[in-house]
Amino acid sequence: HLLTLATAKGLPVLASSRSPHNHHLHIPAPQRIEFDLFRPVTWRNVPGGADLIWCFPAAPPDLVAAFAEQIVPRAGRLIVLGSTSAYKPAETSDTWLDESAAIDQTIPRVQGEEHLRLNHHAIVRRVAGIYGPGRNVLDWMTDTVEAHLARRRGPSLLPVPIAKSFTFPHARVPVAMAA
User: Fold this and answer.
1) Virtual CA dihedral for 96, 98, 100, 103, nearest 10 degrees?
2) Are 53 and 11 a contacting pair, CB within 8 Å?
3) With contact defined as beta carbons under 8 Å apart, do 51 and 94 qualify?
4) φ, ψ for residue 26 (rounded to 5)?
5) pTM over 0.90
6) Helix/strand/coil for 155
7) Distance (Å, rounded) from C-alpha 23 to C-alpha 110?
8) What are the residues facing 124 on neighbouring strands?
9) DSSP one-letter code for 153
10) Rounded-to-integer distance, Cα 19 and Cα 23, Å
């Protein structure tokens, strides 16, 4: 969704991957770059002045800091898509977990996100969801949400339907920030 929205706004878009010749094949080859946080030699592939939308775990913190020191000063805006799992669980089961909850600074990913926020002026947006290979939120929601919620809530509770529209605002915000 990020690519579609950014392209529609006329923004230049590059998609990074550890293996761009095998991933993001729906994106034209000139728009794919090799990037791997664990291989600093690939960091130079990030063009100067680019607005960055960080869509992977910001860990380990030492590599995140090293990347930020080298790349962020010559980049545009930095938007980090974190996870709501950064929030500490509530003290009791009847307490809602929301953005006012403390974050768990013991999680390496959270340490990296906070380093980027505090030291490099990154905007951290914590979004709910499961990301990674085979974990497209839209597929998950449309194919298995009712079965998933029924398993999690137990047979006595009805599943709550989730609309696809939930994910689109998450794609719109970083694109609007980068525009």
Assistant:
1) 110
2) no
3) no
4) -75, -10
5) no
6) coil
7) 27
8) 80
9) H
10) 6
Q: CA of 151: how far to CAs of 85, 95, 135, 154, 159, in Å?
A: 20, 22, 18, 5, 9
Helix, strand, coil fractions of the chain, as percent rounded to 5: 45, 10, 45
pLDDT in tens, 11-48: 888 889 999 999 888 889 999 999 999 999 999 999 99
Q: What is the pLDDT of residues 38-91, one digit of tens each?
A: 999 999 999 999 989 898 899 999 999 999 999 999 998 898 988 888 888 777
Quick check: helix, strand or coil at residue 145?
A: helix
Backbone φ and ψ of 61, nearest 5°? -55, -35
Q: Cis peptide before 73, with omega less than 30 degrees from 0?
A: no
Question: The sheet that has 123-127: what strands, in order across it?
Answer: 52-54, 78-83, 123-127
* Side chain identity, residue 98: D
